[in-house]
């Protein structure tokens, strides 16, 4: 397989925004928000107006990520970056706890528009990976604990599915470009959430595809690998339709809470473990192997 790969080394003018995105795992939209809204970054510009990031700016992006991972609110990061003494003067606020409480209030009042606005703000500031891990994952878990909150849980699920589906469409590869096909075995939201943190081209399905159809398609269009996202066990009939009984002709992986239970019966299918970010990194490496 082959594709045009964004160079992650700087040219004479510095790193492009795409290169910084790939190196640091931060969506370009979020990088622009850090620059415009919070003044955290100051890339130079080419004659055509394209951003170029120096090594110093790249290090600054990585420093921002480190502070956010410690729970520091985005609005406090500027002072921490600009003053070495500020480290002990500012304390992290419970950003995510407050965000989840606001979301619960919006769901309680059935105000999905307000919840969507809140979600958009979090995405602009922190990116999909952190929002899913720190906001939507614990919020969904909290709602699942009480049957009386099933309506709120269903509304949140619906909103997330619609938001992530729209973003997933933008990740679809162009003509003759390589990519991964994400196939859900169970709730398609799990595949969509993984798609949000992957930094590679992909097609994210909302239902399983017959494995024979995947094999036939790969024979004429050998530009994809398949990742099954397993959070439900298929029955015998479904298993025969959806999963390979012999080593598939395409690169194949499986991940999810039930993946280990299923992987032993899937010849030639690689078991992936760890977090969504771990899987995204593994697929990026695997994709490079396929391209070599």
TrEMBL record:
Supply the alphabetized keyword list.
Answer: DNA-binding, Transcription, Transcription regulation
Q: Which Gene3D superfamilies match?
A: 1.10.1660.10
- Provide the GO MF annotations for this entry: DNA binding; DNA-binding transcription factor activity
Q: Do you know which Pfam families this protein is assigned to?
A: MerR_1 (PF13411)
| Domain HTH merR-type: from-to ranges | 14-83
Q: Which PANTHER family match?
A: HTH-TYPE TRANSCRIPTIONAL REGULATOR MLRA-RELATED, REDOX-CYCLING DRUG-SENSING TRANSCRIPTIONAL ACTIVATOR SOXR
| Name the record gives this protein | MerR family transcriptional regulator
